Amino acid sequence: MTAAHLVILYGFGGLSDVGRHAVVAALERSKDEISKITVLTKHPKLLDESNWNCACVGGHGALTEEQRERVNVVALDDYSDIATHIQGATAVVSCLGNRQPFFGFRDACEGTTALLEAMRSNKIKRLVCMTSVGIAEDWPPMERHWSRWIMTGIFLTIGRPSFNDLSQMEKAVRADDDCDYLLVRPVGISEDMVPVNQWYIQKTKWEDAPYFNMAKLDVARFMVGEAIQPTRIKDAVVIGAVPPETST
Q: 173-227: per-residue pLDDT in tens?
């Protein structure tokens, strides 16, 4: 396998926190797997913060000099600038938008639409894209857990702008015939869940379900793995931690 050049986009908010963790997940891979990491964001300073709203062992901080040999962080002023920064890339991990009420950064559709155009112009096909449970055919969210009623209520009321933004983003991705996409719909991504490098993909809605929470780094690890070694193409998955009754 030729070493990948991976592009990672992240924004602001809980879903976008997974994008920050995707940088860590990519750096966990050897240089033979991922030789170059390009990070595109309007919020570059978030990478240097010590608090990533997570329970990762050892915490986080600014990239080391050794890590910066593989990582190029690009501060975007506008999403229209994406095309010039992804030339020669192998795949993209995108974590834009959020599902938190009262957050002003609802740019999942805008940013992803620009990203898709940039990918077409650079002949990049693989996209692993963060979205949410409850979008499109996954409605209602978290159907086998009591939090279903909370998330449904939020999405229909104060969280409607975020829900609409993510819904329109998914439509844009699915409509792009050139894109070999995977839409990733995490359950709750908790600040208190310790990463365990395991996850559970829902097989059939209403019949089985992942645990209702998972660590941000574990979502990121799954996304990075799918970006460089695809197993699901033109698909959408609900992902969470391994349910206690199925863990070994």
A: 999 999 999 999 999 898 999 999 999 999 999 999 999 999 999 999 999 999 9
Q: Which amino acid is at 18?
A: V
Measuring CA to CA, how many Å separate 96 from each of 170, 211, 226?
Answer: 12, 24, 18
Prediction pTM value: 0.95
Greatest pairwise CA separation for the chain in angstroms? 48
CA dihedral (186, 188, 191, 194) in degrees, to 10, reads: -70
Per DSSP bridges, beta strands 180-186 and 235-240 are parallel
219 phi/psi in degrees, rounded to 5: -60, -45
* 112 close to 169: Cβ distance less than 8 angstroms: yes
| HSE value, Cβ hemisphere, 13 Å, CA-based, for 61 | 5
Q: What's the rounded Cα separation, in Å, for the pair 153 and 14? A: 19
Task: Please name the amino acid found at residue 17.
Answer: D
Quick one: which of 238, 220, 232, 197 has its CA closest to 39?
220
Which residue type occupies 218?
A: D
Q: Which residues does 68 contact at the CB level (< 8 Å), separation at least 6?
A: none
Task: Tell me what the mean pLDDT of segment 165-170 comes to.
Answer: 96
Asked if residues 226 and 128 have their Cβ atoms less than 8 Å apart, the reply is yes
- For residue 132, give the nearest of 1, 50, 238, 56 by alpha carbon: 238
The single-letter DSSP state of residue 151 is H
211: nearest Cα among 191, 223, 193: 193
10 Å CB burial of residue 248 (0-12, 13-18, 19+) is exposed
